[in-house]
Fold:
Amino acid sequence: MAALPENQHTTAHAIVRWYESKTQDHRPHMGASIIGHPCSRYVWLTWRWARTPQFPGRVLRLFDTGKREEERLLEELRGIGAQVWDTNPETGDQWRVVACKGHFGGSLDGVAKGLPEAPKSPAVLEFKTHSAKSFADLLSKKVQSSKPQHYDQMQVYMGLMEIDRALYIAVNKDTDDLYVEWVHFDREHFENLLDYAQGLIEMPTPPDRISADPANWQCKGCTHWDLCHGGIAAEANCRTCCHASPVENGAWHCDHHSKKIDDATQRKGCGDHLLIPALTPYAQAIDGGASWVAYKHRDTGQVFVNGKEAVEGYGQAFTSKELQHCPADLLANAAELKEVFPGAEVISGGLKQMEWNTPEDLDKVSKPATKRDKVQRAKIAESLRNLERLAS
Structure:
């Protein structure tokens, strides 16, 4: 008997979809929690908002489980008699640390004092949940070797809080076993991490990929795989624009409009957006001006412009929003449609498909001037429905 599709109308699926319906968005700063990631390009792209994270509902629920475990561990530490501060007493908000002109930092799980092994010394608290396999590796290698990203996160927190130790508590999600390790402050390591973060913040273009192989194990599950290996341009927001730069106090400045840009404006971007050339990875920048950049497709040799208007000799123009939704393999199709339907725009799309405003809309944009135009337009209108099939 052939396998039947799984029923999508169950309580379990409804819960998963509920998690997926929640907004997944970018954090404004470069996080201490990712500074130890093995790929510097990942850290830079995440901070520059190159791709919005789109985690499946199951993973989002897993994240939520970790947050709930934090509350439990705070309660348990209080239960054994420790003084625990999960918020800053001076502000009433979660502990927060910043560095590198306000662009780097993170939020602590808490600070504690009166712990059995060091009753008189305050300690940074860091809680993590682990699978059974990860937990066993942690027991064998200890946190610095097994989870260097967690170790680096604690070094940043200790250095910026001026606390010389951290208590790392790991929970085995399968058995509920606990692993506790004391981590001591390493000033040299801390300063190296700050220098590394500052260097990334000052980079106008992303570092190289950790691997040129799309099947590399460190790349396959990455949020930015389609940008590094899949022929998709970055999202259009101020962080991915040539005109924007980080400045003092965690702020950003737009050189094109000669003003600072707040968080809401950064997320939205504007019509003058020009992608940082390295964020159109399937093409090579070959020319440019104040409001446009010309590219040559690395595989096909096709030329096109990132900008609001075409430039003579460089083919069709695509806004950054359009390039965000136009897969590299369909760029030629997109240019042909633009030629025959002046005013046509790519309105959505991804790795395997793109979507246009409808032929009916396009007829309103620009009527054909000749019989030849009418024939071409009819043929391409008929092929619009097949674009997804061509891309898959």
In short: The two ends are 28 Å apart (CA to CA).
